[in-house]
Amino acid sequence: MEEDEQGVRWWAMVLWALAVGLLARLVTVWMLTGSPLVHAEGTGQRNLKTLIVLGSGGHTAEILHIVEKLNFEHYFPRCYIAAVTDNHSLAKAKKLEEEKAGENAKHCSYYRIYRSREVGQSYITSIGTTLLAMGHAFWLAFSIRPDIIICNGPGTCLPVCVAGFVLKVLGVKWVVMVYVESIARVNKLSLTGQLFYKLHLMDQFFVQWPKLQQKFPRTQYVGRLM
Predict the structure, then answer these.
(1) Whether 204 contacts 179, CB under 8 Å
(2) What is the homologous superfamily of the domain 35-221 according to CATH?
(3) Would you list the DSSP string of 43-104?
(4) pTM of the model
(5) What is the C-alpha to C-alpha distance for residues 114 and 7, in angstroms, rounded to an integer?
(6) DSSP alpha helices (H): ranges in the chain?
(7) Rounded CA separation 211/216 (Å)
(8) pLDDT in tens, 10-21
């Protein structure tokens, strides 16, 4: 009986130590978030594996306009993610790669991910789809292990960025996460932007209007990118 009690106490101490260690790691990651070039793994290397999250319509047009301005030799290889129901974004990304990267376009990767919630879907049924999307995002993040994630607000980027943050917390890899708020957001952040800002998940948070930077001081105003 005493041996059983000792065993229970031992496991309780182990679980307590793990919980404290995880909490300490979480706090450390939050404190270091915001200094990507200092803490990113492989900062001194020539290439950074870049994961780009595509949305639909305007989101894809904006993010690809940003990607087009990147140094393709430095941000390489590039991986693109779009929702399984998005039939156009990956095709646009492939076209951009073929036009700018030429032969090197064959080294790019393209993935599809489940949406957390479709337009018009009830909130009750979206619980299951959100869990499915999170699981899929974690699998992709652990498989790709990017150096940097770039996104601009589609719902697709939420589970991907959460997965990237978990990679940091677990010590698998320090993933630099960059968020660029849509140019359509003049006075108020998008829902995704508000979540990322309040949770302090982004290493770099860019806005394209000075009013937004004044309201949200942890963002950086970069002017209009379109």
Answers:
(1) yes
(2) Glycogen Phosphorylase B; (3.40.50.2000)
(3) TTSS---EEEE--STHHHHHHHHHHHTS-TTTS-SEEEEEETT-SSHHHHHHHHHHHHTGGG
(4) 0.85
(5) 43
(6) 2-32, 36-39, 58-68, 89-100, 123-144, 157-169, 191-199, 210-215
(7) 9
(8) 777 777 877 787
The percent of residues above 70 in pLDDT, for the chain, comes to 88
Residue 106, SS3?
Answer: helix
Q: How many CA atoms lie within 13 A of 92 on its CB side?
A: 22
Domain ranges of the chain: 1-32, 35-221
- What are 21's two structure tokens? 């260690």
Angle at 23 between CA 17 and CA 27, to 5 degrees: 145
Q: In 3-state terms, what secondary structure has residue 161? A: helix
From CA 174, how far away is CA 154, in angstroms rounded? 23
pLDDT of residue 11: 74
Phi, psi of 128 (to 5 degrees): -65, -45
Largest CA distance in the chain: 73
